[in-house]
Design a protein that fits this description.
- Helix content is 41%, strand content 17%.
- By secondary structure, it is α/β, with parallel strands linked by helices.
- The strands form 2 sheets. The protein has a 10-stranded mixed beta sheet with strand order 2-1-3-12-11-4-5-10-8-9, with helices on both faces.
- Strand 11 and strand 12 form a beta hairpin.
- Helix 10 packs parallel to helix 11 and helix 12 packs antiparallel against helix 13.
- The radius of gyration is 22 Å and the shape is globular.
- Bound molecules: 3-isopropylmalic acid (IPM) and magnesium ion.
- The site of magnesium ion has 2 residues, from helix 11.
C-alpha cells in the first residue's frame, strides 16, 4: 500500500545533512505514514553540474505537497564561479540561491517564521516571547532584477524618468550597480491577508506591518497601503505599523508589545533573524515557505560548512520545521506531540547541544526528543 504522504527530502549540504537525519529520526518515531523522496540540491550540484537546484529536483517538487529542506551553502557570484567544474567555467552560468528560486518558481509566497520561547531555554532573551513573522517571500529586493553594471538603455531611461537619478547617470557604467525592489499590490495584499487570517484564527490581538515607507515611498508605501486595506476585513485584529529600523529597537526593548509581524521580503529576512535570536538563536528558528500547492519547510539557519558531518549543531530548528510540515499536512496531533516533546526536553535541560551550553550531539538531542514523544492518541499499548 502506498504511504499517506509523499514528502520531498532535501538535505542539501553542510550541516543540512546532520539535522535532516535528526529530524527523520523524530518523524519515524512519531509514526508518520510517509514516503520520503530524496532530491539532489546544494553546493555539490552547483560545482559539478552548474545548477544547485537541478531540473530533476524541480520535477520531484511538482509531484509533492510538502518538502523538508536542510541547508545549503551559497557564496557571492565571483567565488561561486571559481568553484565550478573547469568545463563549466566562463560560460556565464551564475549562482542563485536554490531556496530563493524554489520560493519564486513555486510561488511559495508566505514565509512563516514562528518564534516562541520554550520555557527554561537558557538562550531565551526573555521568557514568554511568542512572535510570529509573516515575510513576503517572492518579491521585493529578492526579485532578482539586478544589474552589476548599468546598461546604457537603463541609464538613459532612469535619467529621463527620475531627476533623482541624475547624480548616478554621470558615472561610468561599471561604477554603478542597480538592484530593483519590486513589490506588487497582489503580492502585498496576499501576505497581509495571510498574517491577518492567522491572527484572527489563532486569537492573536495585533498585526504589526514592518516597512520603511517614510523613505522608500513607492514600494513600501504600496505595501503599507495594501496591509491597511486588508486590515479592514479583520475588525477584531488591531493594525499597527513601524519602520524597520525602529522596529529592531522596539522589539528588543518591549518584545511583549508585539505579536504577529508582517513585512516585505528583505525586512522580513532581517527581522526574523532578530526574532529567532530572542528565542534561542538559529538553533530554534524554523520556517515554512508556503504556497497554494506546495510548502517547503526548513530551519532558518545556514549550512555552517565548518561543522558539516560533526553532528554538533542543534537539530531543534529542523525538528520544529518538521512539526510545521505536519501541521500543513493535517497531522495536527503528531505535530503537537513533537512540540510537547521539544518543550519537555528543553524544560528539563538535561540534554543540551553546544549552543545551549551543553555537550549533547545532534543525534542525542533528536533521541531525547523522540523519547519524549509519548504514545499517539488511540494507539494501542
Ligand atoms: C533565509 C536566508 C535566505 C534568504 C538565504 C539563504 C538566501 O537568509 O531564509 O532567511 O535570504 O532568504
Ligand atoms: Mg535570512
Amino acid at each position: 500500500m502506498s504511504a499517506k504522504h509523499r514528502i520531498a527530502w532535501l538535505p542539501g549540504d553542510g550541516v543540512g545533512r546532520d539535522v535532516m537525519e535528526a529530524a527523520r529520526l523524530v518523524l519515524d518515531r512519531v509514526g508518520l505514514d510517509a514516503e520520503y523522496l530524496h532530491g539532489d540540491i546544494g553546493w555539490d550540484y552547483w560545482c559539478r553540474e552548474g545548477d544547485a537546484l537541478p531540473a530533476r529536483t524541480v520535477e520531484l517538487l511538482k509531484g509533492v505537497k510538502a518538502a523538508l529542506f536542510g541547508a545549503i551553502t551559497s557564496k557571492p557570484a565571483k567565488e561561486a564561479e571559481k568553484e565550478l567544474a573547469p568545463a563549466l567555467q566562463g560560460k556565464g552560468i551564475s549562482y542563485r540561491s536554490p531556496i530563493v528560486r524554489m520560493r519564486q518558481m513555486f510561488d511559495l509566497y508566505v514565509c512563516l517564521r514562528p518564534c516562541k520561547a520554550f520555557p527554561g531555554n537558557p538562550l531565551n532573551y526573555r521568557e514568554g516571547i511568542d512572535l510570529v513573522v509573516f515575510r513576503e517571500n517572492t518579491e521585493d529586493l529578492y526579485a532578482g532584477v539586478e544589474f552589476s553594471t548599468v546598461p546604457p538603455a537603463l541609464r538613459d531611461t532612469l535619467g529621463a524618468l527620475s531627476p533623482a537619478f541624475k547624480p548616478f547617470a554621470a558615472l561610468p557604467a561599471e561604477e554603478v550597480a542597480v538592484s530593483c525592489k519590486i513589490n506588487t499590490r497582489k503580492g502585498s495584499e496576499r501576505i497581509a491577508r495571510a498574517a491577518f487570517e492567522f491572527a484572527a484564527k489563532t486569537g492573536r490581538a495585533k498585526v504589526t506591518v514592518v516597512h520603511k515607507a517614510n523613505v522608500v515611498r513607492a514600494t513600501d508605501g504600496l505595501f503599507l497601503e495594501a496591509a491597511r486595506r486588508v486590515a479592514k476585513d479583520y475588525p477584531d485584529v488591531a493594525l499597527d505599523d513601524a519602520n524597520i529600523d525602529a522596529m529592531t529597537m522596539w522589539l528588543l526593548k518591549n518584545p511583549f508589545n508585539y505579536d504577529v509581524l508582517v513585512a516585505p521580503n528583505l525586512y522580513g529576512d532581517i527581522i526574523s533573524d532578530l526574532c529567532a535570536q530572542m528565542v534561542g538563536g538559529l538553533g530554534f528558528g524554523c520556517s515554512g515557505n508556503i504556497g497554494e500547492k506546495l510548502a517547503v519547510f526548513e530551519p532558518t539557519h545556514g549550512s555552517a560548512p565548518k561543522y558539516a558531518g560533526q553532528y554538533k549543531v542543534n537539530p531543534i530548528a529542523t525538528i520544529l520545521a518538521a512539526r510545521m510540515m505536519l501541521e500543513w499536512l493535517g497531522e495536527t496531533e503528531a505535530a503537537q506531540r513533537i512540540e510537547n516533546a521539544v518543550a519537555a526536553v528543553v524544560r528539563e535541560g538535561k540534554v543540551r547541544t553546544y549552543d545551549m551550553g551543553g555537550s549533547a550531539s545532534t543525534m542525542q538531542m533528536a533521541e531525547a526528543i523522540a523519547d519524549r514523544l509519548g504514545a499517539a492518541v488511540g494507539a494501542r499499548a
